[in-house]
Amino acid sequence: MNSNMKDTQPYQPQEPELLREDDIDIEPVVEKTEEELFADRQERQDVADVQAESIRQAEEESQEELAKQGAEPVVVIRGLKKAFGDHEVLRGIDLHVNKGENLVILGKSGTGKSVLIKCLVGLEWPDEGEIRVFGRDLSSLRYAELNEWRIRMGFLFQSAALYDSMSVKENLLFPLRQHKKDLSRDKKQALVMEMLDNVGLTESIDQLPSRLSGGQSKRIGLARTLILRPELMLYDEPTTGLDTGTGKEISELMILMKKKYNISSITITHDMACAKMTADRIIMLREGVVVAEGTYEELKASEDEWVQSFFY
Amino acid sequence: MEPVLNRYHRARARVREKRSQWQKSLYQAGDLVAFMGRFFREVWKPPYEWREVLYQCYLVGYKSTFLIGLTGFIMGVVLTIQTRPSMAQFGAISMIPGMISVSVVREIGPVITAIICAGKVGSRMGAELGSMRVTEQIDAMEVSAVNPYRYLVVTRTLATTLMVPMLAVFADVIALLGGYVAMNIHDTMTIQHFFLKAMSHLEFIDVFPGLVKTFFFGYFIGIIGCYKGYNARRGTESVGIAANSAVVAASLAVFVIDLIAAQVTDLL
User: Fold this and answer.
1) Taking 80 as the threshold, does the pLDDT of residue B155 lie above it?
2) How far apart are CA A153 and CA B134, in angstroms?
3) Which pLDDT does position B186 carry in this prediction?
């Protein structure tokens, strides 16, 4: 023991090798004034506006074409604007979603993607513009009418938003108890089991949401939303916070449900793998306007530097 | 035509942008009044959520019985022990049951019950609804075409409005029982005699206002707890703030209602 103590040298921390000022190749941070920040934003918005103009014209033509054919898209948005205080989040959005189509909305954080789909279900109200869902202008609907429309839509939240005081089974039964009161108890149970089977989680029926993993929560959230057989699904970042494998499983589930129940959908994401797998068409939001539109391959082939930044 | 909801949300957003404190306070007061008024509109409308009301009654009522009972008992014991020396000086020990019954039924029972419920139930409602707001569960209810106000607020407020009076009556009885136990520490009195004396001093004017104000206590505890939680902002911190401010505001409301009730009873 003593010999060990003799051999043991007291710990002497080594002086870290300090970097010299010349070695550091970082531009000094210059704090910008409010005017400069405003000018920067204005400049970014001007660039986005130029890009958006041609898309807007193409969208108008596309909507006119559909109107001539008598094919009413499931969702039509015209000139949608929304601001929070002085900050304009959406600055004139035009888009449509055809029946059976999955439209993916891409964009960086803070570009108003979530606000856009929240406007579609009446969680946010636009300042200007028109939102037509299943042929009706949402702003003309009273609360009771809006709820009838909401039953035809499903919304999968980023956090899945499961009711944490209820078990998985009760979470799925909740919308049935509210809207399908004529269904017998057995029928409701059967529907719950069918939906859990669809998402591959029948064994979790009695678990509480706090016991579920992120991916399982998303699946249950999806099952709960689909139990009322919506015609339009809105996915808010369905794969965010999940590992690649689980994200892929969720994307596959979205495709499967779309095929099985013929659902139109809008997906908000910045996960390119999810967009590639699920998108029939993609639109890209920048500074509150649509700056690019096309299929995954078309956008990947785009020469625009900003669009390219999403793919590589 | 501009839709009603749209106009309401815009007005709400405009006022929220105002910076000064007094404007915010005025806005909050107005918003609370609107929130409270909405209860009376929504409570009559179907679908009636009886299952949820019963569950909330179980949580508010049954789950609070031990706490209310224990507090009531201690209240009765302490009141008797502390008043006994003064009453003994005047040779009025036989008046103790009557004095205790009047003070418990008129004031102490309802107020103590309401204060305990404000702490226990108000904070639970504030935190529960605040957490539901933060985790988007209320939004999920809204988009699945379920009226969250009716499902969450009406049921909970109804439960407190019905349960607080029952708990207050329970607290009154247990407090009298505590008084009887304390009375027998120094003196001897049968339970029949104690309760006979206690009841003989109670008049309609003691019982009725004491009972009526508990409905108001219950309503305010429920609605304030729900208001604070329902309007919690995003972020986990807001859950704590909602729970805390629910207790403070509900407790304050209990005392204000008690003051008003005392004035009204005095006029009768």
Assistant:
1) yes
2) 22
3) 84
Range of the domain at B240: 47-267
Q: What residue type is assigned to position A38 of the chain?
A: F
**Rounded to whole angstroms, what are the CA distances from A69 to A64, A122, A281, B33, B167?**
9, 29, 20, 51, 67
pLDDT tens digits, residue range B95-121?
999 999 999 999 999 999 999 999 999
Spell out which chain B residues touch chain A, with contact meaning CB-CB distance below 8 angstroms: 1-6, 9-10, 13, 17, 47, 128, 131-132, 135-137, 139-147
Bigger pLDDT: A61 vs A215: A215
Top mean pLDDT of A32-41, A137-146, A204-213, A240-249 is at A204-213
Q: For residue A20, what pLDDT is reported?
A: 60
How many domains are there within chain B?
A: 1
Q: pLDDT digits over B120-152, tens only?
A: 999 999 999 999 999 999 999 999 999 999 999
d(CA A289, CA A291): 6
Q: Are strands A87-97 and A75-84 parallel, antiparallel or unpaired?
A: antiparallel
What span, in angstroms and rounded, lies between the C-alpha atoms of A236 and A250? 13
Residues of B in contact with A157 (CB under 8 A): 136, 139-140
* Residue B85: inside a domain: yes
The β-bridge partners of A233 are A154, A265
**Chain B residues inside the 8 Å CB shell of A139:** 2-3, 6
* Per-residue pLDDT at B248 exceeds 50: yes
Helix (H, G, I), strand (E, B) or coil at A161: coil
Does any domain span residue B128? Answer: yes
Q: What is the nearest CA distance from B6 to chain A, expressed in angstroms?
A: 6
Res B2: pLDDT: 44
Residue B99's closest CA among B178, B172, B197, B192? B197
Lowest mean pLDDT among A28-42, A91-105, A282-296, B209-223: A28-42
Interface of A with B in 163-222 (CB under 8 A): 163-165, 174-175, 178-179, 181
3-state class (DSSP) for residue A106: strand
Pick the CATH number of A44-311 from 3.40.50.300, 1.10.287.690, 1.20.1250.20, 2.40.30.170: 3.40.50.300
Q: Tell me if B40 is assigned to some domain.
A: no
Q: Quick check: is B24 in a domain?
A: no
CB contact under 8 A, A140 and B1: yes
User: What b/e readout covers A50-72, taking b as 16+ CB neighbours within 10 angstroms?
Assistant: ebbeebbeebeebbeeeeeeeee
Tell whether A151 is within 8 A of chain B (Cβ): yes
Q: Is there a contact between A310 and A298 (Cβ–Cβ < 8 Å)?
A: no
Separation between Cα atoms, residue A221 and residue A38, nearest integer Å: 40
Q: How far apart are CA B55 and CA B51, in angstroms?
A: 6
Start-to-end CA span in chain B (Å): 51
Please tell me the distance in Å from A27's CA to the nearest CA on chain B.
Answer: 34
Chain B residues lying within 8 Å of A159, measured CB to CB: 135-136
A145 at interface of B, judged by CB pairs closer than 8 A: no
User: What angle do the packed helices B96-103 and B65-89 form, to 10 degrees?
Assistant: 140
